[in-house]
Specification:
single chain; about 200 residues; Arc Repressor Mutant, subunit A; 10 helices; about 0% strand; elongated; HTH-type_TetR-like_transc_reg; KstR2_TetR_C
Amino acid sequence: MRRGRGRPGYDQAAVLRTAVELFNRRGYDATSVGDLAKELGLTKSAIYHHFASKDDLLRLALADALDELTEVVSEAVGDAAEGGAYDRLREVVRRSVEVLVAHQPAVTLLLRVRGNTPVEVEALKRRRWLDEQLAGLVRAAVAEGALRDDLPPELVSRLLFGMVNSLVEWYRPDGAFDAPAVAAALAATAFDGLLRR
């Protein structure tokens, strides 16, 4: 990836933000570097001053979402993780909401990838790893007796994080609820329904 300041107001971060907006609005496959240049009022060569290719833009955008989610999950499942599996799972749900809110456009894009390019295939591999780790955390919470044992852990994990991911469709930073309130409500709804009775 090339780095540089570019024109005032159009540094690398601004170009990437606009690219993510366009990819979400028009679809990655339907958006060209020319479309991005037109949206920004730049030439294509000005875009290439910052990024080697359209795939480079996609890779960076998806990494924006995946890197923090990976960090959150890795902390919860790593050897240095503290506390019971239930508490760590609940914390992952809460922190995942925070990541989604902080990186909503990039997470929206991540949830729309289908594996049509090598960059998308790699992102899907990383998402599968996250799914596997979360299912393992659910399994551990069941084993410690904190969660009911009559539901498949993989299904519980998908449902939990399906709730989190659904925020991309309706959550607005300037809306009625801030990120901590949404995270607390989502965790309370999910876990109060999953607690062993």
